[in-house]
Amino acid sequence: AQRVTQPEKLLSVFKGAPVELKCNYSYSGSPELFWYVQYSRQRLQLLLRHISRESIKGFTADLNKGETSFHLKKPFAQEEDSAMYYCALMGRRALTFGSGTRLQVQP
Amino acid sequence: DADVTQTPRNRITKTGKRIMLECSQTKGHDRMYWYRQDPGLGLRLIYYSFDVKDINKGEISDGYSVSRQAQAKFSLSLESAIPNQTALYFCATSGTDGGDHNEQFFGPGTRLTVL
């Protein structure tokens, strides 16, 4: 069975501080992982995917197969980063989402 | 992103009533999904469809049914609504070609309250 775990429900940081949103997964095959973001009053949207190895809005995420992790990082948080973040794993046919972490960036 | 639309956006109903939530997309995607979002639980997959003739149960399909009327339309029905089906419901689509492969595009959500 596939599973995605986001251990933190809420992460509160000050503007300019580094951010790390944790994501661990369980999957027997070769994983394809994503981070989705939901800003206030907006629909869920893709932030980044591991196969692209890209940086979006200053965020990066590296797949660590040894630790089965896909943590989302940003060196300097901005107030506009405040949102709900979901880690997701693409299984054989569909996505499995984690329970989400709310990031609160305080001024 | 108006490519994926959901109706209604909000609905309040009573226990035992039959409810249908509708999803339409203009992205030309074959794959469509229904999720529910509950606080602290994230998004859980209810049903998904890879084309008009392919319907599959997700993680939490009990109490729900779906209909894929066309490539662009995927409806979710609650046959007899109960209060613990109160949630935010999302429709999503995905394609299979090029760079969009496996990326899901979400509708704005339908907030359903069952009294």
> How many H/I helical runs of chain B?
0
* Strand composition percent of chain B: over 45%
Approximate helicity band of chain A: under 10%
- Largest binding interface between chains: A-B, 20 and 23 residues
Give a short account of the largest sheet of chain A: 6 strands, mixed
Helix content of chain B: under 10%
Which geometry of chain A do the CA atoms define? Answer: globular
Give the averaged pLDDT of chain A, no decimals. Answer: 92
How many runs of DSSP E, i.e. beta strands of chain B?
A: 11
Main sheet specs of chain B = 7 strands, mixed
Oligomer, anyone?
heterodimer
Helix-strand topology string of chain A = EEEEEEEEEEE
- Weakly predicted, low-confidence segments of chain B: none
Structural class of chain A: mainly beta
The N- to C-terminal Cα distance of chain B equals 31 Å
Q: Find the structural class of chain B using helix and strand composition.
A: mainly beta
Q: pLDDT under 50 segments of chain A (min length 5)?
A: none
Order of helices and strands of chain B: EEEEEEEEEEE
Strand content of chain A: 35-45%
